[in-house]
Design brief:
The protein has 264 residues and is of the alpha/beta class. The protein folds into 2 domains: 157 residues, Cytidine Deaminase, domain 2, CATH 3.40.140; 53 residues, no CATH class. The protein is built from 5 helices and 12 strands. Strands 7-6-5-4-2-3-1-8 form an 8-stranded mixed β-sheet. The protein has a two-stranded antiparallel ribbon with strand order 9-12. A hairpin with a 4-residue loop joins strand 5 and strand 6. The longest helix has 41 residues. It starts with 11 loop residues before the first strand and ends in a 23-residue tail after the last strand. The protein binds zinc ion. Zinc ion binds next to loops.
Length: 264
């Protein structure tokens, strides 16, 4: 589109990110109708600096083409003189909701009649596709500019500091949401393993109790070494508690244990 010989005269545009954000915000609030406004800035060393915008609230929005009415201009100049007395109107912006970034015949008419200065540009934004473009005068004709510089004045960290209320707003709701979730998760894991441990421990204890009941201590019965008959005392055999199944009988006992008998 742009001939190489005209590149040297292509306007250099530096636009604040705050301006593009406000244009998008304005256009997205009217997704079915076009909106428009003017761009505020200065031309410094052949570079167009756009650092503000003014919405054309009274512009007629009937049909698909925006127009700047007399009332719209009066309102725009009032805001411009109040807020930006040292700046110029360096162009205009408008939205193309759903039909792309270009300049229509009506747009070219507006550019030629209201923004005919060589350093005045036209910013077009489509809120449906999120596409944006900037058109400027190159050797008497309007071209879409190939390079745009987006300036972020919050990015250098010296002019403005991060807003504390925004960080607290984003951090505070996040912590109560994530911390209990983490706590619940770790707690459920802990309860899971505690339950397994308790089950194993209770099985172990139950096993000990059953062993104690079903396999009582080994006892021996004193028997006569000659007749092998149990030695009775008051009509009952004499039970001798053994230290171990394979242990030798107590040395004081005259007889060895003959038989083992469970004792309930
Ligand atoms: Zn248009």
């Amino acid at each position: 589109m742009t001939h190489p010989s005209t590149l040297a005269t292509t306007p250099q545009v530096h636009i604040d990110s705050e301006v593009t954000r406000r244009i998008r915000q304005h256009a997205r609030a009217h997704m079915a109708t076009e909106v428009c406004g003017v761009l505020i800035g200065q031309l410094i060393d052949h570079t167009l600096h756009i650092h503000a915008s003014i919405e054309a609230v009274n512009a007629a929005q009937a049909g698909t083409h925006v127009t700047f009415t007399q009332d719209a201009w009066e309102a725009i100049y009032k805001v411009k003189d109040d807020l930006y007395p040292d700046d110029r109107i360096v162009g205009w912006y408008h939205s193309h909701p759903g039909f792309g970034v270009f300049l229509s015949e009506q747009d070219l008419f507006i550019q030629q009649n209201f923004f005919s200065s060589p350093d005045q540009v036209a910013w077009v934004y489509d809120p449906h596709s999120d596409e944006e473009g900037c058109f400027g005068w190159v050797d008497g004709a309007i071209h879409r500019l190939p390079t745009l510089a987006l300036l972020d004045h919050n990015g250098d960290g010296t002019q403005r500091t991060p807003k504390p209320q925004s960080s607290s707003l984003t951090d505070e709701p996040a912590q109560p949401n994530t911390t209990p979730r983490k706590l619940r998760r770790s707690l459920s894991i802990w309860l899971h393993w505690a339950g397994i441990a308790m089950t194993h421990l209770s099985v172990l204890i139950l096993g000990f109790i059953l062993c104690y009941l079903l396999f009582p201590q080994v006892v021996g019965v004193l028997a006569d070494p000659v007749t092998n008959a149990p030695i009775l005392q008051d009509g009952h055999p004499i039970y001798v508690k053994l230290q171990h199944r394979n242990a030798a009988p107590p040395p004081t006992a005259p007889t060895k244990p003959e038989a083992t008998k469970p004792q309930p």
